[in-house]
Amino acid sequence: MNNKAGIGQSLSEKSAMGVLVILRLVIGYHLLYEGMDKLFNPQWTSAIFLLQSDWLFAGFFHFLANSPALLSVVNFINIWGQILIGFSLILGLFSSKSAIFGAVMILSYYIAAPPFNGGNIFVDRNLLEFFCLLIIYIFPTGNVLGLDMLIEKYRMQKNGR
Predict the structure, then answer these.
(1) Residue 142: which domain range?
(2) Least CB-packed of 54, 64, 104, 118 within 10 Å?
(3) What does the pLDDT read at residue 48?
(4) Of residues 140, 131, 128, the one with CA closest to residue 96
(5) Residue 60 has pLDDT above 50, yes or no
């Protein structure tokens, strides 16, 4: 599939890219919302989540939760990572890089507390969001509708193309 909307694209390619833009916006909104919710909740801490870890790297996650200095760093990265990645995806600004950072962040949530440890199914919201972010990375829709498109146009004009 061509990454740029153009005259030569078929209706199905344009429709697929439109759906991918909507996916980027929805995932961006969700991350932004979750980050803002944490930011404005003075009681929020990632310690509760980290201490529930009982799979891979559980000892590491417990270590983070039990160290006040490291926990404050984890909380800061979590809150501001979600906010900045969410804004970036919504604006279509550096959307490929944001999608990768978001995928790594979401994968860490999945590893810390996978759904199957509680007897649930293998697939949960975190795993689905992880794969959605990989799709956003592979098909950078910021070049279709977003600030990435404007940056690319500026670069092309600057280089005389």
Answers:
(1) 12-158
(2) 118
(3) 94
(4) 140
(5) yes
